[in-house]
């Protein structure tokens, strides 16, 4: 059965891990109907969590907040993977004993929604950062700003920057000259290849003419 309830959060129940403290989170269940509903929360690890309330009523178009607390303090590197199943059904008449009502309820009348649990590391607050570390970070920032200011106002720093600029211009000029030289060299090689090709054709013509003359002379003197 669908459409009776909605939950928030929808996928994960986040338990914040704080040193020496129990993890706690809230699950909100919303009644999407104009009828009174009953709900029941089940968990795969009942010894690990306390669910309050685990069973109860939700008035029409209303909601209920369920507080879930861990039985033991959490560790940031611990494991808290578990499933929670939220069951809901329409309550057509007043029930004095909801636990007995759920035991005898037809499963086809129940809407079930599942959500998982997980550990979320505690957020680091600014006031929790050691004072010495804050002073160290501030000092490093000041040093960087001082160096930047010195590079602007110090004449020697400006001279170094100007020298670097001149070297860069010389490198750019040499790079351009090298590129021009490569283009000239490529053009010369192309011209040499063309001359060689024409020379090969000329040698072939000479061979053919010499061969024809030899054949004619041989024919004349042979006769």
Describe the overall structure.
The protein is α+β, with helices and mostly antiparallel strands. It folds into two domains: 117 residues, Immunoglobulin-like (Sandwich); 44 residues. The protein contains three helices and nine strands; from the N terminus they run ββββββββαβαα. The strands form two sheets. A five-stranded mixed sheet has the order 2-9-8-4-6. Strands 1-3-7-5 form a four-stranded antiparallel sheet, with no helix packed on it. The mean pLDDT is 79.
Determine the CATH topology of the largest domain: Immunoglobulin-like
In terms of DSSP E residues, the strand content is 25-35%
Q: What class would the helix/strand composition place it in?
A: alpha+beta
Strand sequence of the main sheet, in spatial order?
Answer: 2-9-8-4-6
At the fourth CATH level, what is the homologous superfamily of the largest domain?
Immunoglobulins
Low-confidence stretches: none
Q: What is the CATH architecture annotation of the largest domain?
A: Sandwich
| Number of strand segments | 9
The average pLDDT value, as a whole number, equals: 79
User: Can you write the helix and strand succession as a string?
Assistant: EEEEEEEEHEHH
List key phrases describing it.
five-stranded mixed beta sheet; Immunoglobulin-like; 223 residues; four-stranded antiparallel beta sheet; elongated; alpha+beta
What is the secondary structure topology, with strand pairs?
Elements: E1 5-8, E2 12-17, E3 22-31, E4 37-43, E5 49-52, E6 55-58, E7 63-73, E8 82-90, H1 98-103, E9 111-121, H2 131-153, H3 155-222
Parallel strand pairs: 2-9
Antiparallel strand pairs: 1-3, 3-7, 4-6, 4-8, 5-7, 8-9
Helix pairs in contact: 2-3
